[in-house]
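Review form for a predicted model. The reviewer records the input and the model, then writes brief findings.
Reviewer: anonymous (R2)
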Amino acid sequence: MSRLAVITVGLVALVVVATATATQRHAANLEPSERVRGMLVVQGPATRAQTALFGIYCEPDILKNGRYRRTCRDVPRVRRLFVGYGSFGSKAALSRSWNPREWSMWIDGERVSLDEFGTTDRTLYNYPPAGGKDVTLREWSVTLAHPTPGRHTIRYRFQLPQGITDATWEFKVAQT
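Model under review:
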């Protein structure tokens, strides 16, 4: 085989490997410390973020299964934006019904490996959707570090005993 043929075969092999690696990475789920559209996706509870997307800028309450698409208020530019979502109820009810395998999340169309982020529980006092009772909120510990200005989407799909919910929230991070 000529030297030119060997170089050509080597370059073709290199291109095939590089393409396969890029395709494999694109197909993988986002894990902590990976980026999507310039934003670093990190593990962390709401208490470690400057602000939270749900409850302040986006209406979080979904009381019936189904498909939802919601538009949120503009979000100011912050260092850490908590985007975790979850389910509420008594600790006993959450222990019976919570199954991490029944939850999926996408940030700007990129699927997130939720198991790698884990969950946290916190108390919601006198929570109106729970009839004014105190409840436990179990939520995924997902935070965006340095969210980039512009339009973004957060999508959660989950199955609870009452059925499947597929919800997408659209929000815009301010330029300054």
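Findings: Residues 1-30 form one domain.
Further findings: The first strand starts at residue 34 and ends at 36.
Recommendation: see findings above.
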